[in-house]
Write a structure and sequence with these properties.
This protein has 134 residues and is mostly helical. It has 4 helices and no strands. The longest helix is centred in the first third of the chain and has 27 residues. It is globular and about 45 Å long.
Length: 134
């Protein structure tokens, strides 16, 4: 479900706001230091993505295959959520800031994003538009 402005899904920012409110209510450190710690949380989450990729590929001989690609997906989602909550910590206009930035990134894309079929949609050539796993 998208909002009426064609930006990010409405429920996404409602959830981000709710997570931010809960974090604000329970935050042991506030102010500028609390904001910095919230942004620093991103580094922790990115490290968990790296750990999951290493575990899914078995690159640590001591641990072997300790993670799955589902774990990697979940950790990437945690990074995205943490980044959005950190953005909300920084500004009450997080949704607008994100939508403007997303539009700028899409405009820089080599192909127009509006021309790219959505996942699972059959392209004009009759083939699936899904690229599949990387």
């Amino acid at each position: 479900m998208s909002d009426d402005r064609g930006g990010t899904p409405t429920g996404l920012w409602t959830t981000v706001d709710a997570l931010w409110e809960r974090l604000e209510a329970d935050q042991p450190v506030g102010g500028r230091e609390g904001l910095l710690l919230g942004v620093l949380k991103l580094s922790e989450e990115v490290g968990e993505v790296a750990e999951a990729v290493i575990g899914a590929t078995g690159q640590n001989p001591r641990k072997g295959l300790s993670h799955t690609w589902d774990d990697v997906e979940a950790e990437l989602c945690d990074v995205a959520i943490t980044a959005m909550v950190a953005l909300r910590m920084l500004t009450p206009e997080a949704r607008e800031v994100f939508d403007r930035h997303l539009a700028r990134v899409a405009a820089r894309s080599p192909s127009k994003v509006s021309e790219v079929p959505a996942p699972g949609v059959t392209g004009v050539d009759g083939r699936s538009a899904d690229a599949g796993p990387v």
